[in-house]
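User: Some background: our group keeps a shared notebook of sequences we're curious about, and every so often someone picks one and asks for a predicted structure to add to the entry. Today it's my turn. The entry only has the sequence so far, pasted here. Could you supply the structure so I can complete it?
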Amino acid sequence: LRAGGHEVFTPTLTGLGERAHLAGPEIGLKTHIQDVVNVVVYEDLEQVILLGHSYSGMVISGVAERVPERLAHLIYLDAFVPQDGQALVDFLPGRGQQMEARVQAEGEGWYIPSCCPPRGRRSCGRPGTSRTTRTCAGSSLGSARSRSRR
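Assistant: Of course. Here's the predicted structure to add to the notebook entry:
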């Protein structure tokens, strides 16, 4: 995209990646929506084509509710596309209570326990797991209004 002359932004959501040190019980979907809204607003972007992959489909749906006048198009790439009030766990029937129980029992009440042990993540056998970070439970258990825009 950049080679084609397009301006590209790749915001990292609070609590993830290089912003993992900001993870905490207050971080969730609403925070992640605000992260992207802030990029759009503070960079004074217009006619934005916003792409969300996986969980970020939830995020871009919330962004579309907050700053629709700045968006030209939403792209959901292998992403969750929520209906109004739907949380990520709603896409995983029967797993919401199980996830909530694990968050309370193993995640100190605020993060989703990893499938890999906290130490030696490389031993999981999955590429890239050595760089994984905790996922705040609020990102999966929280919901946001959404509007489908094509």
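Suggested note for the entry: The chain is about 25% helix and 15% strand. Residues 119-123, 146-150 have pLDDT under 50 and may be disordered.
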